[in-house]
């Protein structure tokens, strides 16, 4: 046993490692390997003072965590700007140094919770999204992880987009399709065009986030040009997934009571000129 | 009937490129004929960012059967594209064949005997970054372009700096939005930050692009197409929080790359005289709520 772990346990303090161990027990699914859900920086065996859940462990979220007195951050997305948090090529990067210094100076620990939060049933990210939208009662039966579909009371595409943007607290939704189109069937696409092609025939409105602009947006534009009554809401990444980390904070509180737990939003990073 | 065949056109493009033509490389370079026959007579050429159904209709109605484009007709760069994992694998053949949008588009292409030529990687392999040049010209920034002393090619790849009279990030965004008529603009940074030195880029913006750009002293703002929203997007948010840069103005892929298709048309006209050549902008796909 590592000396630090021994020390933490002997004082009865909660560590990040202990929290992760409880998370593994409570997800109700087998732990996968390899997985992105690992410690990214900091000492997992140090005592923790509070937990932040967030979509993206940006420097701003880390600063706000410190201000709130939390030194353990559970993030859905990477900390060091690549899918696997590879830092090999970042050693001389001034921003990397700044972020690492901030974490070390404040004795923080960052752990990623992505793969298993999605793999849980229901998918923790979509459970949070449905709750934030108030769409739990509109969920239509779905086949797999990526085809979450809804039947909502009939409205126009513009009104639906407006409701989505405002409930998710985002500013930068980008839209394809006729604003006056009557819509009722809505579905999440995946990041990739192959995932969206399977969903679009079943819905009036496709919602995507984190999707390359030459893929699904162009596909839906062509669907409209081909005479199909279809539309697209392209959200910032946060708009699709951030609510799921608020859900994560609620869930953590059901089995972690020793320290405060708070969801701190990274928020829609984008704005438009006034 | 013109005497110019599609094969003649391909030969002339390759001859005039200025660098060796490359195709079928493991890391991309999938340029070439996407649909159509090399023996077809070219009746006219349309250049565009992406061959949308609307662009194809315009080409047909103006009597042009050949489209030269940057992005593919079927929405995917495919697995061989550089960095494909940031977009994803191409849809399966089964999915493509059964999909109603793809079927409609394929039928339109074949019933009008259209020829679609992709021209992306080889255009970018030239010693001039014509995508950047096109965008700078449309913005009216050519006269504030910072060209390294002794440089024979002002738009050599990497010559991205432009120095403007100092203004706020919000006003710079507003000016660019007005000039380029961009609807879906997205900005990161403090709207009131004073900025002057801009790095102008186009298309997908990567973390390594930003690292390279920021080695140049004094860059306040980066203008680009789109970032991956777990890579260059949050990297820039962190740069702003750490006070290492002031603003990122995202104008979208199509808006940032389309002027380059205008440059393709101008370049083709220097060695194609048998048929009309016209730049047909695809237009921005998006609108936004007010």
Could you explain how this protein is built, in words?
The complex is a heterodimer of chains A (274) and B (290). Chain A is an alpha/beta fold and 274 residues long. The termini of chain A are far apart. The longest helix of chain A is centred in the first third of the chain and has 12 residues, at 16-27. In chain A, helix 4 links the parallel strand 3 (72-75) and strand 4 (109-112). Chain A has eleven helices and eleven strands. Chain B has two domains: 6-125, Udp-n-acetylmuramoylalanyl-d-glutamate--2,6- Diaminopimelate Ligase, Chain: A, domain 1 (3-Layer(aba) Sandwich), CATH 3.40.1390; 130-254, 3-Layer(aba) Sandwich (Udp-n-acetylmuramoylalanyl-d-glutamate--2,6- Diaminopimelate Ligase, Chain: A, domain 1). Chain B is built from ten helices and twelve strands. A five-stranded mixed beta sheet of chain B has the order 1-4-3-2-12, with helices on both faces. The interface between A and B is large, with 61 and 66 residues.
